[in-house]
Structure formats: C-alpha cells, structure tokens
Design a protein that fits this description.
6-stranded antiparallel β-sheet, homotetramer, Thiol Ester Dehydrase, Chain A, about 160 residues
Chain lengths: ~160, ~160, ~160, ~160
C-alpha cells in the first residue's frame, strides 16, 4: 500500500526474532527496515533482486534506529517506508515501525550508495531514478508543503 | 583489554553472519555492539547478566551505525567500546569495529535507559555507577583533554 | 491453505537469511519450520502465542533437516506442514520446503514435548488435541491408506 | 583442544541467540555446529575459509539435533566436534554441546558433500583427506575399539 509517499508492509514477528526480554531484539529492526525498502522497491516496479542482477548494489553507509516501544512474539507489525532524500548516487529511506494498535515502535533511516559490480559509485539507473523521484516529491510535498513551494518560487524567479 | 577508556573484544565472523554480498550483514553489527558492551561490562566487574539477575535492564533507546568498509567470513575483527556519556538513569556506549589490518569498518553508538523489573526508569546501581564514572572520565580526559580542564577551572572558580 | 492434512505457508526469503554462498543459510530452515507450524496452528484455531499465554509450551526435543536443493534472495518459497504423530504429551510435525517452481528444497521434522509453566510434561489441552487428531487422521489416511484400514479392521475384530 | 578425536571450542551465548523462553533458540544450535566444525578444521590446519578460496565447498545435505537441556544468556558452552564418517566426496561431523557444569545440552550431526566451484561433486583434496583420516581413525578407535580390531583382523586375513 502506498500513501503520501509512504509504502506500508506487514510483518509477523517470528519466535526467532524475540530475545530473552520477550520482545524483538533491537538489531532485528534493521532486518525489518530491509523488508520495508525491498517491498517499497517492488511496489515501484524495481525489485531489489532485479537491480542486483543488473550489476548494481545499494551499499548501506548509515543506519539509525530510535526505539519508542516494544513488541513481542506473533505481533503483526507494519513497516512504513519513504524515500526522503535522493541524489545521483545516493538514496535515503526513512522508516516507521508501528504496532497493530497504531503505536509507534521504532523510527529510523538508512542511507545507501549506489555501486556497480566493481563496487565503484555508480549513478542510479535512469528509469528507476525517474520513478523514485516521483515518490520522493510526493513525500516531500506532504511532509514540507511550504518549503517545496518557496523553493519553486525561488527557482522560477518570482 | 582496556586502554584510554576503550575496551577491546575480538570476534570471529561466522558464516551465519555473512549475506549474499559475501560480507557481514549490516544489521549484525548491532549484535557485535552487544558483544562489545557485554565484555566491557564484564571487564568492569559488572556482567550484564548479573545486572539483569538483580532486576535491572538497560533498554536500548537509540542505535546508530556508520559503515566505512566491509569484511567477510572468518575475519577476526575487534570491537572497541567506551562509555562516552553517563547520567543517573542513562548511559551511552560508543563503538569502533576494526579489521585485523586495523581498517575502520563500522563506528556507532547506542543509548540505554536503566529500568527496574517493572520497566520503570531506575537509577543505575551506585557501585556500578562509580566504576563506570571512572572509565568515562578516562575516556573524556583522553578524547577532550582541554575541555575537561576548562570545565574544572570554571567549576573551581578560577 | 490446508489440503490432505498438509498446511501451506508462503515465505519471502530475506537478504538477512542468505549467506556468502548466495543461498539460504542451512540453520535458517529451522526458522522456516517454526513459521510453518505457527501458521498451521493458527489455521487450526490454536495460535501458538495463545497456547503460551495459557501456560503451555511445546519444547523441541528433536529437529531433522535434509537438504535437496538451494534457493536464494527474494525467492517466494512454500513451507508445507503436517502433524504426522500425536501422543498425549508429544507431537511431531513434518515439513516440506518447496520453491516457486515446485522444486523440493528441504524436508524434515521436529518433535515437541508439551510442558506446563513449571516446565513439567503436561497433556496437550483437550480441545486442541481433538482438532489436531482430526488433521493427523486426514494426513495418515492419505499417506498410508491401507495401513489405516488394516488397523481399523484389527481394532474392530473383523 | 583435541582429545580422542574430539575437538572442543568454547562459545559465549549472545543475547541475540536467546528467544522469549529465555534460552537459546533451537535453530541457533546449527550455528554452534558451524562454529564447532570451523574450529575443528582450523585445528587440523585446513581452515574452511581457505578451502573455499581454493574453489571447494562442503554443502550440507543433512542436519540433525537432539535437545536434552536448555541454556540461557551469557552461558559459556562447549561444542565438541568429531569426524565420524569419511568418504571420497562426503564427510560427517558429530557434535556434543555441553554446559559449563558438564550437562549435555544438544547432540547431533551434519553430513556434507564436497563440491567444486561449479557445484559438482568433487573429491576432498588429498592433503586434507589424509589429515582428516587420521583424526577419524582416532575417533573410531576410541568409540568402537573392538570393531576396529576385528576389521583389521579380517582385512589381514587372520
């Protein structure tokens, strides 16, 4: 599901994902982030697996998670994912992990560098770039409406 | 090994820790951070397991990782851990993950809130606090020597 | 989906689940088995989480996996699960993990002892037992039709 | 440490390895088996990583684990590993996972097929084979002393 630039995926918490505190182990949210951006890319028509089969890879350069509340085994959580910054060779995904009761569990982001098969920086493929730009624009428009218009005004010289 | 407020632990990269890129999966560095702070606490004489058996828990509120270089299966990496900020109910650990060839792989930090058995904020036990303060002071003294002295001067009214 | 005593669940292979061979790490199939039996139990109306909240637990005593073929990232695999043996305090689940192309990847089984909250052997709750028996009977009837009828004949004294 | 054909490795149980039962998740013992055989191979002078860099791989065809007792966070367990069967293109490792108090936790085995870089069956490299044979012989001699001698008698025509 895609809304206001945010894509939503559901994940069922596995027994394996919990730790002796009875809740999801903190490092496993980075796996949930991975699932969120993989399903976002698939929804855009560019599954990450097909990107890799074309010789590209999105190498993680930064990952941040803020933990607001816990959740345990068998919970059906949601990962919301948006592209919040997009450059020629770099992309940033933001995430919100939310419980069934709409409680905010974890928020965070990851930054990725696009690399070619020799692990050198490479421009994001143009067709994928174009589609990602559209969704990033929707996200920015809803998140910071006034900024967008002031930027457009500046750009148009009014 | 403890030096300048930094504790060092060695970890052998497991086959399980790698992904199809042939390197350590990005989320697994949070497990390496866990091992780093567990061994740091043990070196201080306060193993995390004994803290939990006394009814305390250090709940993660924030985790950040920056990825500088990759490493693959069977590598013998080092996790360096320091306490860089210490409050009554809160503690921050910083980490540097380093390869055998002394290459910087990942740096980051985690912030933890001390909770009691009812998951309410609780003061860090006094004996543990005292020991952690000493090591935090050593870290700060080496990392920011001038700041420490200027603060002392201010405090002493010179 | 339930057919001939077998329940089917779909699982998308995560990047995290792969190893440097580019395929699912062998130990992760035990997590897929976990998901298979959890969804089977849910389909029966007895989610494993509700069983645990009543104070019961199904402790694993044995796990076996035979590896026939490999599968990589983003594959949409199926786990087929059946109850193949059912005793008062013990249950055995069999699994078949199958690729999208209907290729057999991994087969195996797990044996579980039912325990109470004090981790002592306990009879499987009667309502759950009754439902499980029905599905086990369907499985056995399809898998070993002649045996079932010969047993019934013996039992009925013909 | 190598004794009677068994190699012993110590592993500290990570928080990540536990589940909401407070003990090691059942699938993680297959990771402990991996560590056991990796350290066994290293002790023999043939680290698994160097085998892979020569183009060989030991593909798992079967894994079995029997669970006798549980163990929790921070436990310092031992994995004992022996080669119990050795053929031209196949090898079987047996494992015993033991607690600090010498309690038997999990026993099991894995069977591996030796493959070349094209994933076709390949003979185990001769120098590695020779060393493995010696340790397998020691294991069999201690485990089944009478069988070994009766076989030798038959072979020598007495």
């Amino acid at each position: 599901m895609m809304e206001n630039g945010w894509h939503t995926t559901k994940i069922r918490v596995r027994y394996k994902d919990t730790d002796r505190m009875g809740v999801v182990y903190y490092g496993n949210y980075l796996t949930y982030f991975e699932i969120g951006r993989a399903e976002y890319m698939r929804a855009l028509g560019f599954p990450y697996s097909s990107l890799e089969s074309k010789g590209y890879t999105l190498v993680v350069t930064e990952a941040i998670a803020k933990y607001h509340a816990n959740v345990g085994y068998d919970s059906l959580i949601k990962v919301k994912t948006a592209i919040t910054d997009l450059r020629k060779v770099r992309v940033r995904f933001d995430y919100e992990v939310i419980s069934e009761e709409e409680k905010r569990l974890v928020s965070g982001h990851t930054v990725h560098a696009c690399m070619n098969s020799k692990l050198k920086p490479a421009k994001i493929p143009p067709d994928m770039m174009k589609t990602m730009e559209e969704y990033t624009f929707v996200y920015l428009l809803v998140a910071f409406p006034s900024d967008i218009f002031s930027n457009i005004q500046e750009a148009s010289g009014i």
